[in-house]
Each structure stands twice: as structure tokens, then as C-alpha cells.
Amino acid sequence: MKNAQKKIKPLSMQISHLSDHPGGKGNSMAREQPTVLVVEDEPAQREVLAYNLEADGFRVSHAENGEEALLLADEVGPDIILLDWMLPNVSGIEVCRQLKSRSSTRGVPIIMISARSEEVDRVRGLETGADDYVIKPYSVVELMARVRAQLRRSRPSAMGETLEYGDIILDAETHRVTRDGKGLKLGPTEFRLLSTFMEKPGRVWSREALLDRVWGRDIYVDTRTVDVHIGRLRKALCHHGGEDPLRTVRGAGYALG
Question: Which residues pair with 135 in a beta bridge?
Fold first, then answer.
């Protein structure tokens, strides 16, 4: 793996950083805030969604059309996307198809929102790759519940869920990790690394992918920094004995198990 620096990507839309929110990153021991990309061309709808999502503790980025949505999906790296079907120029269906065809965004849950209520339309949206389909007009309360349900499956640690792998237990709500019943001391970065690995055991994460997930896409970090923190995580996991559960995949990255 080559030594490189993670580059800052310009964001064409401002993300709402709720650093003072109880779930924000201003508190390193608090649960991280998942990022939601709202793709909606109607200003009023965007504002309602952004307001409710931020009130629910999410970070929000938004796009007004399909082209912008495709760019922001790479720049922001959202945890979930709310995607309107009827967009100017590039339709929501086409945006969904493209996002699900990219390796970098294939695993991001997409909730398609549309006034199209016919069964054939719902089926088309789901078969294109949408993970859920919500018909307008919708209940905001129900939509927020659907967002949380999708994130519990795709980003359980970000939603405060408890993760288990072998004898390792990670409690995202209390920020505690135990192995074989014994407490482990992890720094904030090592905790986020372990959360990432435990969400998808067996998946090989490249240095660049770990930088995006753990450090974020808008800062400069040398990729060798990942190696340093992986070393610290390994030391912490084996502090009370036991085999090293992390696997180095030569030329590719790291994996749990």
C-alpha cells in the first residue's frame, strides 16, 4: 500500500455540524452523528427534512438535483440518503442506479421518496436498489423511524447499538469495550476503528477507506497514521491475552477476522 495523504475535497453544500448537540463529535465520548444526504428539489421539503433530522441528532447535507447528489455522495460520504424520485435533469431512479453501481456508495442505504404511489413504481424503485420507499405525503415521524431503522442495520454503532464479535463486546452508548469480560482502555480513534471493523466483520478495509470512515473526508491525514492506530488497537485488544483478532491483508488493508 502506498504512502499518501488524504486530500480535502471541496463541499459544494455546507454540512450542519452540531458540535454542541449531546450526540455530536464535540464530545469524544459521545455517540457519533450519522450524516444524512437529503436530495430534494423543493426548498420547503428540504427545510422540513433538514430541521427534523437535525433535531433528531443527525448531520445534514443536501442537494437540489441529481448531478449534485452524485457529487456529494462521494464528497460527504453520507451514512444514508433520502432521495426524491422527481428531480430535474437526472431522475432519482437514475441517481439510485448509479450510486448502487459504485463500490464506494453501494452499501449506503437509500430511502426513495416519491408521490408515485402505484405498485409498479414502488417495485421499480426497490428493484433499482432503493432500500426503502416512502410515498408523499408522508409522516415525518414515520420517516425518521425508517431512517433510524436503516441505520441500525448499516451503522449500528452510530445508533448506540451493542456490537459483539467472539469474546469482544462494544457498547456504543456507554463507549465501553470488554474482551472475555475484562474492560479494555481504548482512545477515541481506536474505539471508532474497532466500531468500523465490528460493524462488518471479515470486510477488508483499505487505509483510505478507514481514513474516510474514522477521520472524515475533510481533513489531511497521512495514511501511515492508520498503521499507528491499528497497532494501538491491537495492543489494547490483546492487553489481557488472547489472539490478535485483526488481520493484515497485504496490499489491501485490514480486517476483523
Answer: 114
Query: Both 172 and 114 in a single domain?
Result: no
Q: Are strands 110-114 and 132-135 parallel, antiparallel or unpaired?
A: parallel
Dihedral-angle region of residue 250 (phi above 0 means left; psi in -120 to 50 means alpha; beta otherwise): beta
Contacts of 220-224 with C-beta under 8 Å, sequence gap 24+, read 220/5, 220/6, 220/7, 220/8, 221/5, 221/6, 222/3, 222/4, 222/5, 222/6, 223/1, 223/2, 223/3, 223/4, 223/5, 223/6, 224/3
Pair 142, 102 in one domain: yes
| pLDDT tens, residue by residue, 139-157 | 999 999 999 999 999 989 8
* pTM for the whole structure: 0.73
Q: Are strands 162-165 and 132-135 parallel, antiparallel or unpaired?
A: unpaired
Indicate if 89 and 46 belong to the same structural domain.
yes
Instruction: Output DSSP code: residue 53.
Output: H
> For residue 165, what is the domain's CATH number?
1.10.10.10
pLDDT(14) > 70: no
Residues 173 and 218 in one domain: yes
Give the integer Cα–Cα distance in Å for 175 and 187.
Answer: 10
Domain range for 174 is: 159-256
